[in-house]
Amino acid sequence: MRNISEKKRIVIKLGTSTLAHKTGKLNIRRMTNLVRVISDLHNSGREIILVSSGAVGLGAGKLGLSEKPKDTRMKQAVAAIGQCELMHIYDDMFEKYSVTVAQILLTKTIIENPDHSRNFENTIETLVTMGVIPIVNENDTIAIDELELEIGENDSLSAVVASLSKADLLLILSDIDGLYDDDPRRNPDAKPIYVVDEITPEIERVAGGAGTSLGTGGMSTKINAAKIAGEAGIDMVIMNGKNPEILYELFEDKEIGTIFKANK
What we know:
Blueprint: E1 9-14, H1 16-19, H2 28-43, E2 47-52, H3 55-62, H4 72-95, E3 101-106, H5 108-112, H6 114-129, E4 133-138, H7 144-149, H8 153-164, E5 169-174, E6 179-180, E7 192-193, E8 195-196, H9 201-205, H10 219-231, E9 235-240, H11 246-250, E10 258-260
Parallel strand pairs: 1-2, 1-5, 2-4, 3-4, 5-9, 8-10
Antiparallel strand pairs: 6-7, 9-10
Helix pairs in contact: 3-4, 8-10
């Protein structure tokens, strides 16, 4: 039994492939539906924390670029443009459902500093208690190392946020239905894996593949996120974000996506 219906504090990670078209510009219909469903889940009493990618992708789309820039200085500039756009959109969309949002930008340096991470924990706790949905993103404008390394930081970041915020569940919305025993984009006979009780070398082997041209993460970065969450005692689910309505089925304990069970 998944017992997803019993989870109260949920960290939801939204990837660029979920939020944007391949052009990099906003997928208005999908994001509108996402905000509506998330607002409804929030209204039901769940505490929602979003970890949102999309700043660089939206910035690139707004500038008419076909893909993310490779030059670090250009990435930082594009991230600054995109982050402004991203939060404006979130604020406007959530306001329609009388939900207040807040922005928190993090870097690895902040997370690794005990005093700073404690401040983050306190801020998250206060915002959630006030009924606000915090929207967390990596501060791509100044996080030079992460931009250059291209390690799909927001997947790992979402797991760290889940740990620091003492979440009950980490939910990663992606452009794939879950984990498969092979790459379903190349092998039509690939079979879904609905439950992962332990991340074995075999699980890591089948988790290859890169992200989209506008995103940074592949399945391997999500496996890393599952490890971080699992060590913190948090279950993690990977599911497709293309149809936000399916979130209702997930929270009715239907077999949606892949659940990575926390370490006992």
